[in-house]
Design a protein that fits this description.
Blueprint lengths: L1 H30 L16 H8 L1 H34 L5 H8 L7 H14 L6 H24 L4 H9 L4 H30 L2 H6 L6 H10 L5 H37 L1
Helix pairs in contact: 1-11, 2-11, 3-6, 3-8, 3-10, 6-8, 7-8, 8-11, 10-11
Length: 268
């Protein structure tokens, strides 16, 4: 009976994974097809669509803006997320639950509503319609992800470590530099990669606030709205590869840190 249940669970899991990844795999296959329109099996394979997007000035400019936005967003979101996570870890204050609820709210808001709200706000302060608008909006969206990753790491820290450093004469900033930050370093790097992946792949908010400064996902959306082009598969494969690599690196950092901590406990 247990073996039957295990087989059914594995089959169900495999079916779900196939359902999720089948369109992505097909998109990868079509990105190397020589055919103008998707056909199975492809009549031939070529890198022509990757060469086409490489020679497209607008696509290259959009990719550059996406990389810049992702890098700056990841740094800002991780810094702010670290501060929010440490505040939750160290201090008890009135309204703390509301503070946490508000901090984790952006990803829970429907993306269209959040995009419209960001467009309205940025327009009111004369900051809409540029790459800086995308960075601001993506930072708001990504802060909860960074906070969650670092907050999880801090929850595993012995509260007496920081107090011990104070007793040994360290100031709060010295304790932060030599105790808190080193302990959180794997989670900080993981937060950087996760938030960069979220920013790199996000298009709805960027579509609202970027104006003429299109990011790569927005450029893909314009391809879809216009004449269908095989370049969409090539761009989609490229963006998916970068996003999944960033997420996998973040996950490996967290898993490696967890396994290392388990080994140290076993040795102790």
């Amino acid at each position: 009976m247990d073996r039957t249940i295990a087989i059914l669970l594995r089959t169900y899991t495999a079916a779900i994974l196939l359902l999720v990844f089948a369109p992505i795999i097909v998109s990868f296959i079509f990105s190397f097809s020589v055919d103008r329109f998707p056909t199975l099996p492809p009549s031939g394979y070529s890198l022509q669509w990757y060469q086409a997007i490489w020679s497209d000035i607008e696509v290259k400019a959009a990719a550059q803006r996406t990389l810049i936005a992702g890098l700056v967003t990841s740094v800002l979101a991780t810094l702010i997320g670290f501060g929010a996570a440490y505040t939750d870890y160290r201090y008890d204050f009135f309204g703390k639950r509301l503070y946490l609820a508000m901090g984790f709210m952006p990803p829970l808001v429907p993306i269209l509503i959040l995009g419209l709200a960001m467009l309205f706000f940025l327009a009111q302060v004369n900051l809409s319609g540029g790459l800086h608008s995308v960075i601001i909006a993506h930072t708001v969206l990504c802060i909860p992800f960074a906070t969650a990753v670092i907050r999880l790491r801090l929850s595993q820290m012995d509260a007496s470590l920081e107090a011990a450093s104070w007793n040994l004469g360290a100031t709060q900033w010295q304790a932060m530099r030599h105790v808190i930050v080193p302990f959180c370093l794997p989670a900080i790097f993981a937060a950087l990669f996760v938030t960069a992946a979220v920013s790199f792949d996000e298009f709805a908010i960027a579509w609202f606030v970027s104006g003429l400064q299109e990011t790569l996902p927005v450029r893909v959306l314009n391809f879809v709205q216009g004449q269908a082009s095989p370049r969409i598969n090539a761009i989609g494969s490229f963006t998916f590869t970068i996003s999944i690599v960033l997420v996998v690196i973040a996950q490996l950092l967290l898993l490696r840190d967890g396994s290392g901590r388990t080994s140290r406990k076993e040795q102790g």
